[in-house]
Design a protein that fits this description.
Bound molecules: pyridoxal-5'-phosphate
Number of strands: 14
Number of helices: 19
CATH class of one domain: Alpha Beta
Helix content: 40-55%
CATH architecture of one domain: 3-Layer(aba) Sandwich
Shape: globular
CATH topology of one domain: Rossmann fold
Oligomer: single chain
């Protein structure tokens, strides 16, 4: 297996572990397989009714090739997805399916340590990075700014890994109590939580400035564009498929709540690898640039509004570039022109690149959006129908699936977080606070003055703090 950058016309090839440690390509393109590996229906049948770790091993093996030895890969997968980290899972099924009504399902991706689907990829990414760094005798210092789910998922995944140190900046304002507690209760060992007396943009600016200095050269990001993360999300599409179908070979639709286009892109890759997916339905919230894109071919960035499904409040979906690469016939030069236009004017139109709307339709994507009121309605609907409480992002996917699904085939909506993370919105919808899974009871009492460091927006102070701890 070899990988290329989306912006490289020459298609220079790299190995899996090179893409893993590089994150972004030097030409600022994203890594993608030079050819999608294939999984046959016979291979799929063998995986039916096996544990998640079996499926994850088989699919990642296809993607990685020989770059990580089989025994090692098995070990990494087994360490990423343990019963301890996924305490509510049963018989090794960490992504269980539930039926809402005939041909309509929810698949839970949020049984991991931080109750959101980011755990699925982060856990595996942490293990793979730690393995490869140790093998190369290298170490990694990560400086990162985040205000949402990704931060705690990264901390939970990197905690205790000997070759990685993680410095996490977060703004004092903006975070919910629950999210803050999730992050700050993970401090210690190799994890440093730094609270910046400023806003999220200040944190990001500090990260950018420090990344530019040669002293801290290896501050790689492990953000959502890392190919290791995208590829670690592919197995769960196989897992759900195998749980939901009566007959291997039957086609299903998936509906995915989307922001950065990472999750649904992994579904697209699963389809490219041979998983019988008929359509991928992209669900957005009020920030519906992706919906407009699939309907018109035109991508225009507008400032994202803050909504009650905040992890989808994104208007520049960074992983979308990987799909455009395929749409533009895997022509790196053309893609680079397209992205240049996008980055200069924040607006670009696929129809200017000889792609028609019917070409786009043939890509099997469909899309729709949901509003705050509709989100609340869906939370109420699922509660009344099944007595399950769903989170606001999952509600967006239920809403869009209801509008677009074909009742004659199975549609699977992805549940991307547990409601416990968004108590205010649940309270608004149901007049009650969702029950907390055992591991989150008393969460807010698990941090104190000694689990975070408060700094002003002062670059030198931050550098000093890092020097002292590296
Ligand atoms: C990150 C996130 C999303 C959006 O996923 P993308 O891969 O960015 O499209 C949706 N829901 C939740 C709860 C998330 O944390």
């Amino acid at each position: 297996m070899k990988f290329v950058s989306t912006r490289d016309a020459e298609k220079k090839e790299l190995s899996y572990t090179d893409t893993l440690l590089a994150g972004l390509a030097p030409d600022r393109g994203l890594f993608i397989p030079s050819e999608y590996p294939q999984v046959s229906l016979d291979e799929l049948k063998v995986l039916k009714d096996t544990a998640y770790t079996e499926i994850a091993f088989a699919i990642k093996k296809k993607i990685i090739g020989w770059d990580i030895p089989d025994d090692t890969l098995r070990e990494l997968v087994n360490r990423a997805y343990t019963q301890e980290k996924f305490p509510e899972s049963r018989n090794g099924n960490i992504t269980p399916v539930r039926k809402i009504e005939k041909n309509f399902y929810i698949q839970n991706l949020s049984l991991g340590p931080t109750a959101a689907f980011k755990d699925m990829a982060m856990q595996q990414l942490g293990q793979e990075m730690n393995y490869e760094l140790n093998k190369r005798g290298e170490s990694l210092t990560i400086l990162w700014a985040t205000s949402w789910d990704t931060g705690s998922a990264a901390e939970a995944a990197m905690k205790g890994l000997e070759s990685i140190k993680l410095f996490m900046l977060s703004p004092q304002v903006w975070m919910s109590e629950f999210q803050r507690a999730q992050m700050w209760s993970l401090s210690g060992d190799n994890i440093y939580n730094i609270s910046i007396d400023g806003r999220f943009d200040d944190c990001q600016d500090m990260v950018k400035d420090i990344k530019g200095s040669s002293e801290f050269a290896n501050l790689w990001a492990v953000n959502s564009i890392n190919w290791g993360r995208i590829s670690s999300q592919v197995p769960y599409y196989f897992s759900w498929y195998l749980q939901a179908v009566d007959q291997v070979g039957e086609e299903v639709d998936f509906c995915v709540p989307s922001g950065n286009f990472g999750n649904v892109l992994s579904g697209y890759i699963a389809k490219k690898m041979g998983l019988p997916i008929r359509r991928l339905i992209v669900a957005t919230n009020e920030n519906n640039v992706l919906e407009k894109l699939f309907k018109t071919g035109k991508y225009t960035v507008t400032p994202a509004d803050i909504t009650s499904s905040p992890s989808m409040d994104i208007s520049k979906a960074s992983n979308y570039e990987r799909l455009v690469y395929d749409i533009l016939w895997r022509d790196g030069a053309k893609l680079a022109t397209y992205m240049k236009q996008f980055e200069e004017s924040w607006s670009v139109d696929l129809t200017d690149f000889w792609v028609s709307i019917s070409d786009l339709k043939e890509l099997w994507f469909e899309s729709g959006s949901s509003s705050h009121a509709q989100r609340l309605e869906m939370i109420q609907y699922v509660e009344e129908k099944r007595a399950w409480v769903i989170d606001p992002h999952t509600a967006d996917s239920i809403k869009v699936a209801q509008d677009l699904r074909d009742p004659n085939i199975k549609t699977i909506c992805l549940e991307t977080a547990l409601p416990v993370k968004f108590e205010d919105t649940i309270q608004e919808a149901l007049w009650a606070i969702p029950e907390r899974p055992e591991q989150f009871v008393w969460l807010e009492s698990r941090w104190g003055d000694d689990t975070f460091t408060l700094l002003w927006t002062d670059r030198e102070a931050l550098k000093d703090f890092m020097r002292k701890n590296i």
